[in-house]
Amino acid sequence: MPSVTPPSPRVTIVTGADDGYAPLAEDLIASVRAHRALDGIDLSLISTGMSPPVLERLRPRVENLADGAWNIGAAGRRAGDRDWLMARVNKLFTRDYFPGYDVYIWIDADAWVCDPAAIDWLLAGVRRARLAVGYDDTPTGPIPVDIRSHVGGLALARTYCMKHARRARLGADVVRKLARVRPFNNGVFALAGDAPHWPAIQGYMTRMVRHGRIFGSNQMAIVMAVHLDGLPVAMMPHACNYLDVPRVCAETGAFVEAEIPHRPVGILHLASRDAMRADPTLEMDLLDTMDRPVRRSLRYRPEYLARASG
Predict the structure, then answer these.
(1) Structurally, what CATH architecture does the domain formed by 11-138+182-238 represent?
(2) Which of 13, 54, 241, 277 is the one with CA 20 to 30 A from 267?
(3) C-alpha to C-alpha distance for 29 and 162, rounded to whole angstroms
(4) Known InterPro entries for this protein (predicted)?
(5) SS3 call for 191
């Protein structure tokens, strides 16, 4: 019998933005469109308070556009008028906003695709475990610990997951289980459309925001689904959600990891870089792989891809 080639999965990259983040979302969209290898992937946008003119400007650039909502009522009540927090809830409900896809890839609006290989890694992770996500820092380093005080020569410390579990009043047993867990960073993650993780993650998010902070609870919801429910996860390399200061490849001009052997950065995430997120003209001093100074923005610019993609 002749072999039958399975159909390609329907994949969408999803992000969310308000008026303030709309220019960053435009950068992300442009970076995806710049890679021919990603032509078969749809782009989906959740508006978390965009004005009509901004909506109309972005509408032709994506396949799907939806108005965001507080999918969890308690989160909306606690957020008040801080609608910018809405995306932290929406990212866990992308399947509800855009049904019918086989894979949902969330990328925060302040990140952009430098190398399409990162999308391949996410898709491979979904094939293996239904969920693909990276850590909040490099996995070779120690788990970040906040030293609160010293008593009798002993340091009293708390980790990221411990802090959020306590704030959410999850109970001593759960706090202990999560205390030494390394947090994920769901600024970039992918889920299969039929993954069993969806109800678990959404349920934990609902539980977290009753008493905990919305900021951070979205990451904890995925941590809990994996470490409390035992749901599978494929860990992505740091280059898939690169949060550090990169170098510039002396040969290609592309952004690469700062550490030797300077592998290409797949997705560059501008988390916490408030000034650069607000001003696309702002540049900073970097080094290339030959230790020569280079001055660049970390925002998407087409010329940063030109030599890398040929």
Answers:
(1) Alpha-Beta Complex (3.90)
(2) 54
(3) 36
(4) Nucleotide-diphossugar_trans
(5) strand
Q: For residue 125, count other CB atoms closer than 10 A to its CB.
A: 25
Contacts of 278 (CB under 8 A, 6+ apart): none
- Residue 309: HSE in the Cβ half-sphere, 13 Å Cα cutoff: 19
Sign of CA dihedral 168, 171, 177, 180: positive
Asked, as a colleague might, if the bond just before 261 is cis with ω within 30 of 0, I would say yes
State how beta strands 247-248 and 255-256 pair. antiparallel
End-to-end, the C-alpha distance of the chain in Å comes to 41
Domain ranges of the chain: 11-138+182-238, 145-178, 240-309
**Tokens of residue 280, six digits:** 């696309």
Lowest mean pLDDT among 127-136, 206-215, 273-282, 293-302: 206-215
Q: Give the Cα separation of 219 and 160 in Å (integer).
A: 10
